[in-house]
Write a structure and sequence with these properties.
Layout: E1 10-16, E2 21-26, E3 31-33, H1 41-44, H2 55-63
Parallel strand pairs: 1-3
Antiparallel strand pairs: 1-2
């Protein structure tokens, strides 16, 4: 194996957007995350829908229910 070709591997602190921090190992000197296990909906059980600029409403307005495959069955409420 060649010597001195591997990057430095050291302990770093990861800073999340929610304010949580934790320590890990990385070749980076600093890590900033938008979401972590403390604020992720899968782990917290709280589901958030982020609708930027009404994308869902625009999609439904444009396509309505025509994008759903017609099966002859009425959807169950």
């Amino acid at each position: 194996m060649k010597k001195d070709i591997h990057p430095q591997y050291h302990k770093v602190v990861v800073h999340c957007g929610c304010g949580a921090t934790f320590e890990t190992h990385s070749t980076s000197k600093e890590i900033h995350a938008e979401i972590c296990s403390m604020c992720h909906p899968f782990y917290t059980g709280k589901q958030k829908f982020v609708d930027t600029a009404g994308r869902i409403e625009r999609f439904q307005k444009k396509y309505g229910t025509s994008y759903i495959k017609k099966t002859g069955k009425e959807p169950q409420p």
